[in-house]
UniProtKB/TrEMBL annotation:
Gene3D superfamilies, per the entry: Glycogen Phosphorylase B
Annotated Pfam families: Glyco_trans_4_4
Annotated protein name in UniProt: Glycosyltransferase family 4 protein
Domain Glycosyltransferase subfamily 4-like N-terminal stretches: 18-194
SUPFAM superfamilies named among the record's database cross-references: UDP-Glycosyltransferase/glycogen phosphorylase (SSF53756)
């Protein structure tokens, strides 16, 4: 089959959607399919990073398109970036040949609508892979007013593209529930989370010690938040807890990644003079295992309004490592679903705003000591291995075309 993958990010970018789409592309190619990718020529977090406009990588044809690269510091910049991607992608997609299946992710928002339009013009089927749900996310984050003209138009476009989808990939039961509430038949929805990065993420003792030594963390109990820093994952509770625990010298907070809220974390550290907080940019894949292994406790945060809209995909790498985690968020979410399947020493849970509860969890974790050999977590992680979930997704994509 001829398969088109459409998303803002792809190899060699390192954000989560780029990594998962790259994994899928390689899996589809190994399964004997012709794969073409259309993505941005700019880095997601750093638009100064530029990639070749066209190349063949691992047998995959990559077409990268021009976008303004204005950053994400203001709404208008985001809107211009989105419009630029849409326009450039439209011009390229109209010139490309027909594809049997077009798989659309969700960055920029409503890109599946463009994929649907092209499929209607040229034929084939469209399969949206919902990494986050928009305009729902924009409304929940306060970027878009519910009931406003823009929100109503975007919702109409969203529902129109969903009605024409051969399959829709939801990441958890909460997201599937939101899709069904929008009128998507249950028979169209396939629910599977994104996989862990099995080839890059393994507990690495040597990498752990090297990373900790490089960043002055040797001998510390390291609490790590790693990944996208966004309003969907509000960090206020964790930061306030770090402020309260500033006098406990063996406890250190490490924030690794990027996103719109990353500078706010830096600002909080500097404003309060917190020497127990370190911030680092996204780490390259070659250092990812060492970076993640350097933690004694990982933190995963999910804002209550975003349940079923975004998915805490970082949790699968954490389970693979066998390192305990602290989930900060609502009582009912995919995170608490997973935590309920683990023993008490493997996971901790607290609500947003419950600073004292977070502080108690952190002190309890410190008292328990470093744990990196938790068979229960690693057993659970096997359900989310790439070899399991990627092959299942490939079968869904193949089936969507065959049922046309």
């Amino acid at each position: 089959m001829r398969i088109l993958l459409l998303n803002q990010c792809f190899y060699p970018d390192h954000v989560a959607t780029a990594q998962h789409l790259t994994d899928l592309a390689l899996g589809l190619k190994a399964a004997g399919h012709e794969v073409t990718v259309v993505a941005s020529s700019r880095g997601y977090d750093n638009p100064l990073n530029r990639y070749p406009a066209q190349e063949t990588w691992q047998g995959i044809e990559i077409r990268r398109i021009w976008t303004p690269g204005l950053g994400k510091s203001a709404k208008w910049r985001r809107y211009v970036n989105f419009a630029g991607f849409w326009l450039s992608a439209s011009l390229i997609l109209l010139r490309l040949p027909r594809f049997d299946v077009t798989v659309c992710l969700t960055s920029p928002p409503l890109i599946s609508t463009l994929g649907t339009l092209v499929v209607m013009l040229k034929g084939g089927v469209v399969v949206p892979w919902i990494m986050d749900l928009n305009p729902d996310e924009a409304v929940a984050a306060g970027w878009l007013r519910q009931g406003g003209v823009m929100e109503r138009v975007m919702t109409l476009l969203q529902k129109w593209s969903f009605r024409h989808a051969a399959r829709i990939i939801a990441l958890d039961r909460f997201m599937a529930g939101r899709l069904m509430a929008k009128g998507v038949p249950a028979s169209v929805i396939h629910t599977d989370p994104p996989w862990s990065h099995d080839d890059a993420v393994r507990y690495d003792e040597a990498g752990r010690e090297a990373f900790r030594a490089e960043h002055g963390l040797s001998g510390k109990f390291v609490v790590m938040y790693s990944g996208n820093h966004s309003p969907c994952h509000p960090l206020d509770t964790l930061l306030t807890a770090a402020q309260e625990l500033r006098g406990e010298g063996d406890l250190h907070f490490l924030f690794v990644g990027g996103g719109s809220e990353f500078e706010k974390v830096k600002g909080f550290r500097e404003r309060h003079g917190l020497g127990n907080i370190t911030t680092l940019p996204y780490q390259p894949m070659a250092k990812l295992a060492g970076s993640l292994s350097s933690a004694d406790l990982h933190v995963v945060v999910l804002g209550a309004p975003f349940v079923g809209i975004v998915h805490p995909c970082k949790i699968y790498n954490i389970l693979t490592l066998g390192i305990p985690f602290l989930a900060i968020g609502p009582e009912e979410s995919h995170l608490t679903d997973l935590a309920s399947r683990l023993p008490a020493h493997a996971s901790y849970c607290a609500g947003a705003g419950e600073v004292s509860a977070v502080v108690n969890c952190l002190r309890e974790a410190v008292a328990s000591g470093s744990r990196h050999e938790m068979p229960e977590a690693r057993q659970l992680a096997r359900e989310f291995a790439m070899e399991v979930l990627r092959s299942r997704l490939i079968r869904v994509i193949e089936g969507a075309c065959q049922e046309k």
